[in-house]
Amino acid sequence: LLSVCNLAIAQIDTRTACDFSDIKDFVEWFKGSKANQKSATNDPLEAGFDQYDDKGKKLAMEYELHSHDELGWPILPYLGNDFRETFIEHDKDTVEYNSAGGMGYNHTYLFKREPCWKLVKFTHDRL
Predict the structure, then answer these.
(1) 49 to 6, 28, 32, 34, 126: CA distances (angstroms)
(2) How many domains does the chain divide into?
(3) Could you say which DSSP state residue 96 is in?
(4) Does a structural domain hold residue 35?
(5) Are 125 and 105 in contact (CB under 8 A)?
(6) Which of 7, 23, 48, 70 falls 20 to 30 Å from 64 in CA-CA distance?
């Protein structure tokens, strides 16, 4: 029994957002749990959500600051096989991660490394 407990403890991921130099490895860690996501997300987070007027016309995206309590967690949910994932490197410390597809939504996550990776901006947009 003790060896099973030790094995379970050894499998707990104790890394932080500071332990990653590669953005793809960081995003995989970030996806791993709500706790990882909250610890590596600005609070408040600059976020934009698609909005429509009363005639169904899409309005220009507006960004506002949202506290962690206002956001739905996980902010980066499990992505099924029907999602496309892309990384756009703005510079070595700023990377945009996009996930599109699924139920017709595009999510854009802007990560900055200062010195640890952090989610600094989020966009939720209907395709």
Answers:
(1) 44, 24, 24, 20, 9
(2) 1
(3) E
(4) yes
(5) yes
(6) 23
Q: Report the distance separating Cα 95 and Cα 105, nearest Å.
A: 20
User: What three-state secondary structure class fits 51?
Assistant: coil
Instruction: Give the tens place of pLDDT for each residue, 80-99.
Output: 566 778 888 888 888 988 88
The residue assigned the tokens 């976020």 is 47
The CATH code of the domain that includes 110 is: 3.10.450
* Phi (first) and psi of residue 56, to 5 degrees: 85, 5
CB atoms within 10 A of CB 92: 9
Q: Which domain holds residue 100?
A: 19-126
Q: What's the CA gap between 56 and 65, in Å, rounded?
A: 25
Closest CA to 118 of 24, 10, 45: 45
Question: In whole angstroms, what is the distance from residue 116 CA to residue 96 CA?
Answer: 15
pTM of the model as a whole? 0.80
Q: Is residue 107 part of a domain?
A: yes
